[in-house]
Specification:
The structure holds 2 protein chains of 2 kinds. Chain A contains 12 helices and 12 strands. By secondary structure, chain A is α/β, with parallel strands linked by helices. Chain A has 2 domains: 171 residues, Rossmann fold; 127 residues, Rossmann fold (3-Layer(aba) Sandwich). A 7-stranded mixed β-sheet of chain A has the order 2-1-3-4-6-5-10, with helices on both faces. A 5-stranded mixed β-sheet of chain A has the order 7-9-8-11-12, sandwiched between helices. In chain A, helix 1 runs parallel beside helix 7, helix 3 packs parallel to helix 4 and helix 8 packs across helix 12. Chain B folds into 2 domains: 304 residues, Thiamin diphosphate (ThDP)-binding fold, Pyr/PP domains (Rossmann fold, 3-Layer(aba) Sandwich); 30 residues, no CATH class. Chain B contains 13 helices and 7 strands. In chain B, a hairpin with a 2-residue loop joins strand 4 and strand 5. The model of chain B has no long low-confidence stretch (mean pLDDT 96). Classes of the chains: A alpha/beta, B alpha/beta. Chains A and B meet through helix 3, helix 4 and helix 5 of A and helix 5 and helix 6 of B.
C-alpha cells in the first residue's frame, strides 16, 4: 500500500493487486477490466502484472460473467468479478440468485461459490437512470449472499479483503460518488481486515442516532455538523455491512439516544432502511422516544435532471432528526 | 477397415451420425474397438437407466418420492456421454433429466437418496427429486432453472485451463435450453476462451409441450455451433455407440486444448415431461409408438445378440440383478431416515449470521430439536 493518502478506487485497486500477488487462485474478470483497467480504473495495471489468464476481459454478458465466476469458484479459484455499473447487473441476476447465492445450500455444503462481485453503485454523478441505481435491497433479500458497502478507502481495503478471503459470496457495492472524493492513508498491514457484519460509530453523540452507509455518509456527516452547531448531539453509525448488519452497535446506540434516523439513497419501500427501522421498532420500543425515521431516495425511477432533488439532502436529514427530537 | 481416429466424424454433416444401421449391425467407417465386456457394460448401463425410471415410478406410487422427470428414451445419449467421460475425473454440469447419467457417474445409492430426500443425501435433501449432485463423483448439483448450469460449466472449464488440469467439463441440457440467454452467452464465452467443455444436447424435440419448430427456426441444434466458432455434430441419440464415439471424440479434443464442441443428440422422451404433466394433450400416441420402434435398448440388444454376446436368459438375469440392486439402494435410502430440523438453516452461509441463529432458535422452540 502507498504511504500517501489514496482514494477509495485506488484502495480497491491496490487491494486487488496485493491479493493477486498473495494468492495465485485470485482471478479478476469483467468488462474492460484488462487493457482498459476498468472504466473507473479499479483494475488498472493488473493485466500487465498478472497476465490475461488471471485478468480476463470478458464478452459483454453479465450472466456469463457471474456464471463463469461461480463455476471458477466451485473449482477452488477465488474470482473477483466486476459488473461495470450496478444498473447492468440484471442480466446476471439469475446467476446470482440461482447459482451464486444458493450453491452451498442446494448442494448440502458440497460446493460453494465464494465470488466477490464488485459493482459501482448509487447516483450523484450525472448518470441518469442507468448509471445511478442502488439495488442493494435485491441482494439483501436473497438468502445466501452477504452485501457490503464501504464509505472510506480504509473500509474498502478491509471489506474487500474479508470478501476475497471469506468462504461465501459477497456483493461488494462501491459508492461511485465517493470513488475520488475522499483520500486517506490506509493501513499498510497485510492482514488488516474489516469483518463483515460490523458497523462503525463515526461520531459519538447523545440525542439522536443517524444510521447510514455508502455515499450518504457525506450528507449525514454534514447534517451532524449542522446539528452540533445548533446544540444537538448526533451519533453517526456507518453500517458498512448491509447483510448481515450490526444489530448490536445499532441497538446500543438507540438505547442511549432513543431516536433513530436511517438515511440511504435507495428507494425506501421494502429497503435496507426499512429493515433497520422495523428491527429497531421490534426490539427497542421501550427505549424509543420517537418513531424510527427513514430518509431515502424516492420510490421513482432514478431521474436525470432532478438528480439532486432525488438524493437524501442535508435538509431532509435535519428535518427528520428535528421531527424525532421534537416528537 | 480403418481404426477409430480422433477425427473420425466430420462436424456439420448432412446426415445424422449413426453407427448401428437399420438391421442393427455396425455401420461405422472404422472398426468397432470396444471389447465384449465393455459392450455388455454399455447394455447394463442402458438397462439400469430404464429400470431406474421403473423403480422411481414405484416410489412415486408409494409416496416415497414426490416427483419424476423420466429419462426413458434418453438412455443411449446418457450412456454414451457417461461412458465417454473419465469417471470421477471429468465434470458433469447436468440438468434435471439426467438421473440415469448421474447413476452411471456416481451410484444408485447417491441418486436414490436424493430422490427420497433421505438423510443420506449428500445434498441434504434441499431440493425436489431429480436434482442430484456429488463433489466426489464430480457432478455439479442440479438447479431446476433452464440453462442456469451452463455459464458455471464454462467457468469450471476455464478454471481447468488456469489450473493446468486435464479434466474436461460436460454440460447437458434439453432442446428448450438452447433458447435461453445463458445458453448463448455460455456458448460464446466457451468458444472465445477455447475452454475444455462439451455442450451435449439431449434433444427430445419437446420443451414440455412446445415443439422444436416453435423453439428455433434452424433445421438443427447442431448448426448453431457454427455461429459461435465451434464444431457441431448431429447424432442419432437412440444409437448408444454413435453417442459414445462422438462424445469421446469431442471430449478428447477438448482435453487436448482444441476447444469446445456442441453435440446434438436426437432422443425421444417416452413419458410425460414430468409426473405433473399430461403429454396426451400435446402429442399423439402414434408418435410415441413410432419412436419406441427405435428403442435404444432393444436395438442394442439385437446388436449384441447378433454377435452372440447376449440371449434372453442372460438378459433376464441381468434385469433381475439390476432390479435387486436398485431396490436395495432404495431400501438403504429409506432406512437412513429423514432430514433433521437444523438442516433448514445449515449451509445458507458457512457461518450462520445472527438473524439465522435467531430464526433457528424460534423454529426449534416451536417444533423441538431433533
Amino acid at each position: 500500500m502507498p504511504s500517501e493518502p489514496i482514494t477509495l478506487i485506488k484502495a480497491i485497486m491496490h487491494t486487488l493487486d496485493q491479493e493477486m500477488a498473495r494468492n495465485p487462485n485470485v482471478i479478476v474478470l469483467g468488462e474492460d477490466v484488462g487493457r482498459r483497467g476498468g472504466v473507473f480504473l479499479g483494475t488498472q495495471g493488473l493485466l500487465e502484472r498478472y497476465g490475461p489468464e488471471r485478468v480476463i476481459d470478458m464478452p459483454l454478458a453479465e450472466g456469463a460473467i457471474v456464471g463463469a465466476a461461480v463455476g471458477m469458484a466451485s473449482q477452488g479459484l477465488r474470482p473477483v468479478a466486476e459488473i461495470q455499473f450496478a444498473d447492468y447487473v440484471y442480466p446476471g441476476f439469475d446467476q446470482i440468485t440461482t447459482q451464486m447465492a444458493k450453491l452451498r445450500y442446494r448442494s448440502g455444503g458440497q460446493f460453494s461459490a465464494p465470488v466477490t462481485l464488485r459493482m459501482p453503485t448509487g447516483g450523484g454523478v450525472g448518470g441518469g437512470q442507468h448509471h445511478s441505481q442502488s439495488p442493494e435491497a435485491l441482494f439483501v433479500h436473497t438468502a445466501g449472499l452477504q452485501t457490503v458497502m464501504p464509505s472510506t478507502p480504509t473500509d474498502a481495503v478491509g471489506l474487500l479483503r474479508s470478501a476475497m478471503r471469506g468462504a461465501d459470496p459477497v456483493i461488494f457495492l462501491e459508492p461511485k460518488r465517493l470513488y475520488r472524493s475522499v483520500k486517506e492513508v490506509v493501513p499498510a498491514e497485510f492482514d488488516f481486515t474489516v469483518p463483515i457484519g460490523k458497523a462503525m460509530v463515526r461520531r459519538i453523540g447523545a440525542d439522536v442516532t443517524l444510521i447510514s452507509y455508502g455515499a450518504c455518509m457525506l450528507e449525514v456527516a454534514r447534517a451532524a455538523d449542522e446539528m452540533a452547531r445548533a446544540g444537538v448531539s448526533a451519533e453517526v453509525i456507518d453500517l458498512r455491512s448491509l447483510l448481515p448488519w450490526d444489530r448490536d452497535t445499532v441497538f446500543e446506540s438507540i438505547t442511549k439516544t432513543g431516536r433513530a434516523v436511517i438515511v440511504a439513497e435507495a428507494p425506501g419501500k421494502a429497503s435496507v432502511a426499512s429493515e433497520i427501522a422495523a428491527s429497531i421498532a421490534e426490539s427497542c420500543l421501550d427505549r424509543l422516544r420517537a418513531p424510527p425515521m427513514r430518509v431515502t431516495g424516492f420510490d421513482t425511477p432514478y431521474p436525470y435532471a432532478q438528480d439532486k432533488l432525488y438524493l437524501p439532502s442535508v435538509t431532509r436529514i435535519l428535518n427528520a432528526a428535528k421531527y424525532a427530537i421534537d416528537y | 477397415m480403418a481404426t477409430w481416429q480422433d477425427d473420425s466424424f466430420e462436424a456439420f454433416s448432412e446426415q445424422s451420425i449413426s453407427l448401428i444401421d437399420a438391421s442393427d449391425r455396425w455401420c461405422g467407417a472404422f472398426d468397432l474397438d470396444l471389447d465384449d465386456s465393455t459392450l455388455i457394460g454399455f447394455y447394463e448401463d442402458l438397462l439400469r437407466m430404464r429400470l431406474l425410471d421403473e423403480r422411481l415410478n414405484t416410489l412415486l406410487r408409494t409416496g416415497k418420492t414426490s416427483f419424476l422427470a423420466p429419462c426413458s428414451g434418453h438412455e443411449a445419449a446418457q450412456t454414451g456421454i457417461g461412458r465417454a467421460m473419465r469417471r470421477h475425473h471429468d465434470w458433469l454440469f447436468p440438468y434435471y433429466r439426467d438421473q440415469g447419467l448421474a447413476v452411471l457417474l456416481s451410484s444408485a445409492d447417491e441418486v436414490l437418496a436424493q430422490f427420497q430426500a433421505s438423510c443420506s443425501d449428500r445434498n441434504k435433501a434441499r431440493q425436489m427429486p431429480g436434482h442430484p449432485g456429488s463433489d466426489q463423483a464430480h457432478i455439479f448439483t442440479v438447479a431446476s432453472s433452464i440453462a442456469a448450469q451452463i455459464p458455471p460449466a464454462v467457468g469450471a472449464a476455464m478454471a481447468k485451463q488456469i489450473q493446468r488440469s486435464d479434466e474436461v467439463v460436460v454440460t447437458t441440457f434439453g432442446d428448450g435450453a438452447t433458447s435461453e440467454g445463458d445458453w448463448h452467452t455460455a456458448m460464446n464465452l466457451a468458444a472465445v476462451r477455447k475452454a475444455p467443455i462439451v455442450f451435449a444436447c439431449e434433444n427430445n424435440g419437446y420443451a414440455i409441450s412446445v415443439r422444436l419448430a416453435a423453439q428455433t427456426a434452424t433445421a438443427t441444434i447442431a448448426e448453431k455451433a457454427r455461429a459461435y466458432g465451434m464444431p457441431g455434430y448431429r447424432v442419432d441419440g437412440m444409437d448408444v455407440l454413435a453417442c459414445h464415439y462422438v462424445m469421446k471424440q469431442v471430449i478428447e479434443r477438448a482435453r487436448r486444448g482444441e476447444g469446445p464442441a456442441l453435440v446434438d443428440m436426437a432422443v425421444y422422451r417416452y413419458g410425460p415431461h414430468s409426473s405433473s404433466d399430461d403429454d396426451s394433450v400435446y402429442r399423439e400416441a402414434d408418435e410415441v409408438a413410432a419412436w419406441k420402434k427405435r428403442d435404444p435398448i432393444d436395438r442394442f440388444y439385437r446388436f449384441l445378440a447378433a454377435r452372440e454376446l447376449i440371449d434372453e436368459g442372460a438378459d433376464k438375469a441381468l434385469r433381475d440383478r439390476i432390479k435387486g440392486e436398485l431396490a436395495a439402494a432404495s431400501e438403504r435410502a429409506g432406512a437412513a431416515g429423514t432430514a433433521p430440523v437444523e438442516w433448514l438453516f445449515d449451509d445458507v452461509l458457512a457461518e450462520l449470521p445472527w438473524h439465522l441463529v435467531d430464526q433457528r432458535e424460534l423454529l426449534l422452540g416451536e417444533v423441538g430439536g431433533s
